[in-house]
Amino acid sequence: MTNELFIDLSVHHKPRGFSDHFALGFTKLLRFCADTFFAKRYGHRAVVLETVAAVPGMVGATINHLKCLRRMTDDNGWIRTLMEEAENERMHLMTFVEIARPTLFERFVIIAVQWVFYVAFFLLYLVSAKTAHRVVGYFEEEAVISYTHYLAEIDEGRSANVPAPAIALRYWKMPANATLRDVVLLVRADEAHHRDVNHGFSNELKGVAPAGQVIAPYPEHDLEIVGLSRKEAA
Ligand SMILES: [Fe+2]
Ligand SMILES: [Fe+2]
Q1: Residue pLDDT, tens place only, 9-31
Q2: Has 193 been labeled as part of a binding site?
Q3: Is 19-233 a CATH 1.10.150.20 domain?
Q4: Residue 98 assigned to a binding site
Q5: Residue 224 assigned to a binding site
Q6: Residue 216 and residue 194: Cα distance in Å, rounded?
Q7: Domain segments of the chain: what residues?
Q8: Which ligand is the nearest neighbour of the Cα of 135?
Q9: Ligand sitting nearest the alpha carbon of 92
Q10: For the segment 157-210, what is each residue's pLDDT rounded down to a tens digit?
């Protein structure tokens, strides 16, 4: 099905200044840790990393919400956008947990990482929101690369192209015969959209708007099922 879903896989924000270099360095360090820990276990990698990916949107939404209350100003749509990003990442998690069940050790890692990452990202956002959004932009560049590798694993037969989980069929409005490959394509498109939105937010906070900045199209989602249990949504 969605084979032709076009996204630009090569987007990379060239770092400019300390804030960008810090964001890129931090991202590359985490990428190295993830590559070492998971190697080619892409299903497990997706489950654990989506528990992290769903954090920044909610942190950004909370801090912007509080700022708007204090300053009595408009948010220009940032809060909804960031909350939707967090929800979308949580739906990625709900999907991949149907594909790969985390081990006991991975569950421990998820809890430990959440404590550290939530607090660290919250503090970073307070100190420098533009750096925080740049970090997410770079995280999403890496997510696009990882899901491209996952697609290659499926195409080369190393990961079974199982039927798409029921929750994914509903959320991305896919036909009943959709497979894991179709899901990964749509998840990758979601990540590309977040990538461009967050680089855009960082640019806006920096007061720069690079020429030719485009936002990758966002796949259509059924938002009605976001609050339902997996059983109800199936
Ligand atoms: Fe994700
Ligand atoms: Fe993402």
Answers
A1: 989 999 999 999 999 999 999 99
A2: no
A3: no
A4: no
A5: no
A6: 8
A7: 19-233
A8: 2
A9: 1
A10: 999 999 999 999 999 999 999 999 999 999 999 999 999 999 999 999 999 877
How far is 44 from 52, CA to CA, in rounded Å? 13
C-alpha 49 – ligand 1 centre gap (Å): 8
What the block records as the tokens of 138 is 């770079």
Residue 179's CB is within 10 A of a number of other CB atoms, namely 17
> How far does residue 61's CA lie from ligand 2's centre (Å)?
15
C-alpha closest to that of 11 among 206, 188, 219: 188
